[in-house]
Write a structure and sequence with these properties.
mainly alpha; two-stranded antiparallel sheet; 19 helices
Length: 448
């Protein structure tokens, strides 16, 4: 393996290194190694614990989106559904509660402008994943209730039974032509009095379904709720609405199908003809299918969003670790540099960006080379009786270092002129030059 790497040219080595780096950061590989497929939780408990402590500062924006969905639902219901005291009271109460939740949630973004109790409450909600999830579920529940609560004030008289009595037949035999030829007024514009009932007529119950779909969108905006949690919540919403629609409210959808078909007929010579056989999928069958498909689509979207968020968290964690390693390496390199150069000299060279050749060499007169460490000294150092338990090794090291501190008289004159402070150390004999005075360099002027 080593021979293969030695035979590779530098370009191939770079390509191989980049390929390994790209593969290491591959999304699929990261997801398979760290994240479970269906639950989308981290395989390592410590990673899941760190991720659960992440604070989502955009929680106030999620509540604001839910409030916006609530406003849209109110506009639809007020426009389509007959007005009632239940509508007025419930919508005003929900508006007050949602506005309060939105106010407390947005305090976190500008905490210094509000009293400390409100700041503390806002931090408890936003900084805790459990508390923010509870508040989010409560907000979604209010939006969902506002989508179909007006169904309880609608007239649930069975139009099939009403028309069957008029024609003296069974409800199963009643069709759109019976309704069109009936003496009673069964128009889509009729707001009250359907089959003699006193409650308002809700002739367009499909708008309740549309509002429920909007409430499911409100569920999708809360990113701190896991995809499994969203799926469970959306399934509960779907189940509750389908139960309400199929049991007490099923006559609303049956009446709507019959009225829409009857009002689409055209009279021929002043009479309604029923020669054609009507084929239409009932609303009570289509509605569960539509909601199920919508829930499935939102769940897939939630999975994609959560998967991306968890991968971003992994990349952020890796970047943080790499940054810490880089800072540790930088500090270690600075310590090495300060062993070679004084701090002020090192700061001078690091103060601005320099070319590599400038840092590698520089032509200077009367300058000697000093080595910061002795190669393989740790292998040389051995504590034995022969070397006085290692004392002789240390003495040799001190002699080597002392040799670097000795400066000739000529250098002393040059350094003294530059305001360097030197201490006289004595005479040494140099072969071919005789005796030379030596000095120890104490400190120098500030480079800056």
């Amino acid at each position: 393996m080593r021979n293969t790497q030695e035979n590779m040219n530098p370009e191939d080595e770079v390509d191989e290194f980049l390929g390994r780096a790209i593969d290491a950061r591959s999304i699929d590989r990261l997801r398979s190694e760290h994240v479970r497929k269906f639950l989308l939780t981290f395989r390592k408990p410590e990673l899941e614990k760190k991720y659960s402590k992440e604070v989502d500062d955009r929680f106030g924006a999620y509540v604001a989106c839910s409030c916006l969905v609530f406003v849209f639902i109110c506009c639809i219901q007020i426009t389509i559904v007959p007005h009632s005291m239940l509508m007025l009271g419930f919508y005003l109460s929900c508006l007050l509660v949602l506005a309060s939740v939105l106010f407390v949630s947005t305090i976190y973004c500008c905490v210094k402008l509000f009293p400390h109790p409100l700041q503390r409450l806002s931090r408890k909600i936003v900084q805790s994943k459990l508390n923010s999830t509870i508040v989010g579920v409560f907000t979604i529940s209010l939006v969902f209730l506002s989508a179909f609560v007006n169904m309880f004030v609608c007239n649930i008289q069975d139009l099939h039974s009403c028309v069957a009595k008029e024609y003296n037949t069974t409800p199963n035999n009643v069709n759109a032509c019976h309704v069109a030829n009936s003496f009673a007024n069964h128009s889509l514009d009729l707001e009250t009095g359907l089959c003699g009932g006193l409650q308002p007529s809700c002739n367009f119950p499909e708008y309740f379904t549309y509002c429920v779909l909007l409430s499911l969108l409100a569920c999708a905006v809360f990113l701190q709720i896991s995809s499994i949690g969203k799926l469970v919540l959306m399934l509960i919403i779907e189940l509750v609405y389908i139960v309400m629609m199929e049991l007490p409210g099923v006559t609303l959808f049956d009446n709507a199908d019959l009225l829409v078909t009857a009002n689409s007929l055209s009279p021929i010579n002043g009479t309604w003809t029923c020669s054609l056989k009507f084929s239409k999928v009932a609303l009570k069958i289509m509605t569960p299918i539509v909601i199920t498909v919508f829930v499935l689509a939102l769940y897939l979207h939630a999975q994609q969003v959560e998967s991306t968020a968890r991968l971003d968290f992994l990349w952020k964690l890796q970047a943080t670790e790499e940054k810490e390693e880089m800072e540790e390496l930088q500090a270690y390199n600075r310590r090495l540099l300060h062993n070679i150069l004084p701090k002020d000299v090192a700061a001078h060279f690091l103060a601005r960006e320099r070319r590599n050749d400038e840092l590698y060499y520089q032509s200077c007169e009367c300058v000697a080379v000093m080595f910061a460490s002795i190669s393989n000294f740790s292998e040389f150092y051995v504590e034995l009786e022969a070397n006085n338990e290692g004392v002789e090794c240390l003495r040799l090291l001190n002699e080597i270092i002392a040799d670097f501190d000795e400066v000739t008289t000529d250098m002393y004159q040059v350094l003294s002129a530059e305001n360097y402070h030197l201490e006289y150390r004595g005479l040494v004999k140099v072969k071919g030059k005789g005796e030379m005075c030596t000095y120890f360099l104490n400190e120098g002027p500030d480079i800056s």
